[in-house]
Design goal:
N-(1-d-carboxylethyl)-l-norvaline Dehydrogenase, domain 2; Rossmann fold; eight-stranded mixed β-sheet; alpha/beta
């Protein structure tokens, strides 16, 4: 039989988890949130009656508890549930933070429960869940051995792939996710500003750049990071990079430090992949004058 689940924190993550678990035959014993109205909204989605702002009332009855609150309160919410004897000694308690280790749930472990973290590598932007947002994604898991094995099974139930990581690696794992997702958005914003400055209409910027972005992602997938690199740095075209630097300095100088920084790391990456010589790498590092 599939383990029963209690959800504490009925926002974007809690809603997506609860809905996907219900759809896959897990019993949700109850849901809890800071505001009872949020819990009631999720209870209605799941077709259950137990919605509360007193989490220990539902967590006590759950085989698996998800603390899907904001990162900053996970530890204190866990401690307050533990104080109320809110975890069964047989329970497994997870939080969903990418940055924090499972050890912030130490108070639940003192109650005898197993602890782990289960971080779906996905962006949950809204409460509106029409498709399974877990399908095909990786779910990073770490924690006690029992927690890791339960998390792996639950990830598979959600049609995701478990990715076991080391507890100490969580901040860097999460930094990688931030670079790949959030910073990609930031970089696209910078590209939009540059191309608009060149005369492309704002509402056309994405359509103009989209095939290039998608082609680049496809190239990374096909040939890997080093071979996917194209453009002036990997061609050793210092003059073109200098033209960019001059144009940016004249029109959007606030973007110059970022551009120089990216030339620096692009040249480093081209050097690592033996795509440019050591002399050319040195030239770029001097010209972009960063670090
Ligand atoms: N969103 C994502 O893309 C994503 C992806 C992967 C992992 N995560 C992780 O998932 C967790 C939740 O993130 P989220 O995006 O779902 O946040 P969110 O949408 O802001 O939802 C957080 C929920 O927690 C509730 N809450 C706040 N303080 C609480 C407390 N003291 N006790 C009980 N409930 C409390 C809030 O309650 P009320 O509604 O009642 O005020 C809110 O519904 C975080 O650890 C985050 O790192 C998020």
């Amino acid at each position: 039989m599939k383990p029963s689940v209690g959800i504490v924190g009925c926002g974007r993550m809690g809603t997506a988890l609860a809905k996907a678990l219900v759809d896959r035959g897990h019993a949700i014993v109850g849901v809890s949130s800071l505001h009872r109205t949020s819990a009631q909204r999720l209870a209605d989605i799941c077709g259950i009656s137990d919605a509360t702002d007193r989490p220990w009332e539902i967590t006590r009855r759950a085989d698996v508890v998800f603390l899907s609150t904001p990162d900053g309160v996970i530890e204190s919410v866990c401690a307050s549930i533990s104080q109320q004897d809110g975890f069964s000694p047989a329970a497994v308690v997870f939080h969903c933070s990418g940055a924090h280790p499972s050890t912030i749930l130490a108070s639940a472990r003192k109650s005898g429960a197993s602890i782990g973290s289960m971080h779906p590598l996905q962006s949950f932007a809204s409460l509106d869940i029409s498709q399974n947002p877990f399908e095909g994604i990786r779910v990073a898991i770490e924690g006690d051995s029992k927690a890791v094995s339960v998390a792996a099974q639950m990830a598979r139930d959600l049609e995701a792939f478990p990715l076991q990581i080391i507890t100490e690696g969580k901040p860097l794992y999460h930094a990688a996710a931030v670079v790949a997702s959030n910073f990609l958005v930031t970089l696209m914003g910078v590209a939009f500003r540059l191309i608009q400055q060149a005369g492309v209409k704002p509402d056309e910027a994405f359509a103009v750049l989209k095939p290039l972005i998608e082609g680049t992602l496809a190239n990374i997938d096909r040939v890997g990071i080093h071979q996917a690199l194209t453009g002036p740095v990997v061609r050793g075209d210092v003059q073109t990079v200098e033209t960019h630097i001059q144009a940016i300095a004249e029109t959007l100088p606030e973007l110059l430090p970022l551009y120089n920084c990216l030339v620096h790391y692009t040249a480093m990456q081209a050097g690592e992949g033996n795509r440019i010589s050591a002399e050319m790498l040195e030239t770029f590092l001097e010209r972009c004058n960063f670090g």
